[in-house]
Amino acid sequence: MEAKVSVPEIEIVEKVTLPARETSVIVVDMQNDFVKPEGKLYVPTAQKTVEPIRGLLEKARARGVRVFYTQDTHYEEDPEYSIWGEHVKYGTWGWRIIDELKPVEGRDIVVMKTRYDGFYGTPLEDLLKVYGVRNVVITGTVANICVLHTAGSAALRWYKVYVPMDSISALNDFDYYAALRQISFLYRGVIVRGSDGINFD
Ligand code: ZN
């Protein structure tokens, strides 16, 4: 199919300050299989997002913002392998979160998930509720898959979603902009130009 489309106008915010006590940062699937060239489902632009995410986490931790990670997790004969091939198999190197963004033990919360949606079959919703979170800043990969599903799922629960453009990655531009469009237009999330424009007080 040959179709040329243009990206509709997406409102981009330069700066936002969020209340630390009511905000969480969620890092989606920044695992070796997705981020590293030797990984099984490599997303070439994911490497560029590591530094912006790292900077955001540093600010968040300094302000006492709770940090969540989702960790895509599959086991033997997972039905998802028929779509994507084997990836992030439990316990393997590819399954592990990249060293550069290693969760802080005893502080950050890692939620293992088996589908695209970080809420589906996981304790994420319960934990956000327990901690009184209302805003979620979502980063990670893949933009139009697990990031989009998790952002949508958060928005359907009336969490306010914030996404820094420099902190998500996709396999191509169409997928990247389609994700931003859906998050902005459909889920009324806030697209922030860069992670350096997000602060906590
Ligand atoms: Zn998967």
Write the layout of secondary structure elements.
Layout: E1 12-13, E2 16-18, E3 23-28, H1 32-35, H2 47-62, E4 66-72, H3 81-84, E5 109-113, H4 124-130, E6 135-141, H5 143-156, E7 160-164, E8 168-169, H6 173-186, E9 190-192, E10 198-200
Parallel strand pairs: 1-9, 2-10, 3-4, 3-6, 4-5, 6-7, 6-8, 7-9
Bound molecules: zinc ion.
The site of zinc ion has 5 residues, from loops.
Q: Using the alpha-carbon principal axes, give the shape.
A: globular
- As a percent range, the share of strand residues is 15-25%
What's the level 1 CATH class? Alpha Beta
Radius of gyration: 16 Å
User: Order of helices and strands, N to C?
Assistant: EEEHHEHEHEHEEHEE
* Secondary-structure content class: alpha/beta
Can you describe what's shown?
With 201 residues, the chain is an alpha/beta fold. It is built from six helices and ten strands, in the order E-E-E-H-H-E-H-E-H-E-H-E-E-H-E-E. It has helices at residues 32-35, 47-62, 81-84, 124-130, 143-156, 173-186; strands at residues 12-13, 16-18, 23-28, 66-72, 109-113, 135-141, 160-164, 168-169, 190-192, 198-200. The protein binds zinc ion. Residues 72, 74, 80, 87-88 line the site of zinc ion.
